[in-house]
Give the backbone structure.
Amino acid sequence: MAVVGSLLEAGQILMSWPTPLWVVVGLLLGMIAGALPGIGSSLGMAIVLPLTLPLGPINALCLLVSMYSGAMYGGSIAAILVNVPGTGAAAATTFDGYPMSKQGRAVEALAISATSSTVGGVLTILTLIAVSPILIEVVLLFGTPEYFLMAVLGLSMIGVVASGSVVKAIVAGAFGMLLTTIGIAPNSPELRYTFGNLSLYNGIDFIAALIGMFAIAEMIKISAQKGGIAKEGVDLSGNLLDGVRTAIRHPVTILKSSFIGMFIGAIPGSGATVSNFISYGEAMRSSDDPDKFGDGEPKGVIASESSNNGTIGGSLIPTISFGIPGSGSTAVLLGGLLMHGLRPGPQLFDAELATTYTFMLALLVGNVVIFCIGIFLVTRLGFLTQVDTNYIVPIIVVLSMIGGYTLRTNWIDVVTVVGLGLLGYLMVKYNYSVIAFVLGVVLGPIAEENLLRSLELSNGTYSIFVTKPLSLILVVCILIILFGPFVKPRLERVLS
Amino acid sequence: MNAKSWSENIVENDTVKEKVLLLVMTAISGYMLWGATQFTAASSARFPRLVATVVLVGSLLLLVREYLPGPLRQALVSEGAAFEASEEFVEKGEEVEEMTSPEEGISSVDRPLHDSVFTALAVVGYAVLGYAIGLLWASPIFVAVYARWFRINTLRTGLLTGISFGIAYVFMIVLNVELDAGAILLTGGVPWL
């Protein structure tokens, strides 16, 4: 009954002014961020984060989740029209979306994308709402030691799931955690690494870290990519209704891809960048005529687009339950939650259950709005693909720098934005997981607090992490994840 | 090797740049590990010591990986990617990205500095200037310099400069933050704004 009551309350909150306005604003901003190659959801959300300070937590979160959702659809615009995925989440859309565009079916492909994104998003959010009562029970099983172990598990998972060296990802994550130890210690008045500087007493702001890592690092990178995005004019031809009909005629592909997206989204570190490829591969594998894929096969667009919007529902599960973001965008969303005084975990499923349901419903409504905007404004959004990156870079840098400073009017935040921007650029270049680093920054204080509290409970003995069955299972999982990749080849050699 | 060729080597050589990144991480984690031994409360040192050790050991191993025995080196570079899409698609995706947005070798606008190096230096300069004279005034200067470097025409440079000033001004008014005052110049802000 509490769930139904909270859902009704959430519905009322969502419909009360000005929340619907922030949902639409978020969707439009997200679509623009997604359509501009090099920007994407995490960067767009990171820049907007400081601007949400004057908004209440509900409006701020509705704005952020709507941006996340809008960017997933927005990414397909550039992918279909100019063969450049606006975000990694739309990379597989280029395979068939762009050939469709070349065949004079660009509008049809965009309508397929809008319809698939909407259906995929709605289905997975409804599933998330349906499983939320079970999720509440699971979350309530977790105590302080389990939360610490979940933080370690989340970071370890990124090492295994993210592409690139496992060790590099672990070092990146631990380095992120290390930086969060600057400032006053959580359970004593001890000042750590402050050099007597008052500005460092409260430590490094994780939002400044997010802005530096996502915005500045990306701008340094894309400034070296030559000028304009679309070299030629964009041909917006094709039939809108044909696209909607085509998508609806493939319910199995939509269903399968949405849930592949949801499943992969729930695994920390993977996200839509991986899920759209896997869904595309699955659609191709199960097709009667796989040779058509790559030459403008609508099923390719359907699979990729329904999976990337489906990923959102999945990535929210670890984010709101345990504070472990599934992707860069959910790391920013988590930053938004913490910035507005909401802690992931039991609080979001107890006292703040209505708030949690409000942003889930905002996603649901947002997906329907995506369909309307996608269908009616699609022919107006093509110009975004022709914006020169040289115009975008300085404006994003200005927004990042000013956004960083306004967080606490502390110059340390600007130093963080710039310093971590430079570090982030090198990390991206040499394949050190930025997501792992960001996760480390976000999880650092949570992990330390729970570690110290657990040790206080156990009078300083580490056995508290293995005495309960749940914590023991988590420890075993961490060990398998960390040492599995090294042990597996040896085991295979021995067995063969 | 003279100073100029040494600095060029650092900018151009990828192996050297990764080593610089690892050295930074090693130095920071080493310092923080040592710093943790100076804390008075043992509980305050526990977590920094734990994570600093992970970073220090990991970055040191990565730093000297070429000199390590084969199996250990293999373990260090072994990839996770448990949910990686099939290689065919990943390669295809990479091809699309490379085809449409190649990273230029030196400068896309025929300047003596690599575009990324210039942007990085410009961002640092912007932060320093912002500290000195206030972000409200530093923002249009940064945008104008950036636009001229990338040979954006005068009209568009003016437009971008105006937009950047507008953004800073809106932040200042809406969030009530003093962006018009610097630490060296205009320390009292600009009253008529």
Notes: The helical segments of chain B are 3-12, 14-36, 42-63, 70-77, 87-100, 115-133, 135-149, 154-174. The CA atoms of residues 66 and 73 of chain B lie 7 Å apart. Chain B touches chain A through 86 residues (CB under 8 Å).
